[in-house]
Amino acid sequence: MRLKERLSIDPKRTAIVAIDMHRGHLDPAVATMPVPPDECRRVLMNTKKLLLLARSYKIPIIHVILKYREIPGLGTEAATNPFWVAIEAAKETLTPGRPSKIVLHNVEGSVGTEIMPEVAPEAGDYVISSKRRLSAFYGTDLELLLRALKVDTTVLIGVNTNTCVLCTAFEAFNRDLKVIVVSDCVASMYGEDLHEFGLQNLSRCLGWVLDIEEFESKLRGHTPLVKAQIHNGQS
What we know:
- Helix 6 packs parallel to helix 7.
- The chain has a single domain, classed as 3-Layer(aba) Sandwich (Rossmann fold).
- It has a six-stranded parallel β-sheet with strand order 5-2-1-6-7-8. Strands 3-4 form a two-stranded antiparallel sheet.
- With 235 residues, it is α/β, with parallel strands linked by helices.
- It has eight helices and eight strands, in the order H-E-H-H-E-E-E-H-E-H-E-H-E-H-E-H.
């Protein structure tokens, strides 16, 4: 609690970074690395509220999406990672109780790369689609964009809590950015145990884990620039 009391948020220096909120994870009908359906619904419902809140304060929203190019004779760029290759060869799954298909996951042009419509980019949002591995920084221009926007506080949401969100949090921390993760807006295809592990690791080592209500309370000292009714989803 004392750590949360020490946290202040300036909307003018803050950005929402939405990580891999695409159909490849969050649409049970087509997902190749699926998050459980109830978790999909929870994350999408809450993220819709969070993005509405962020837009009311004109906080920039950055969507970072994983895409793999197809490479003749190899498959996709995912096929160069030895662990993923071993998972496929052993016919193991990364998603407990559900199949995962690394070789088919988020191939460029596939429906899996589409951002879920509930949280789709709007005018003024930013989209980065050059993510190839767990980090939203590695191989992308996210750091340059954050600098251009004069951001010192990153609010991370998305999938997966214990891999891509956690890895991005480490990299934001290493750049001396303030790290916040909104617990209502993250989930993991790896299971509830690793989702909880990710949140614990984040809150004890890297930054602040807040729910939407706590995040909103940190903004109350600032005047919204756009009227928004957060709780019923109307603007």
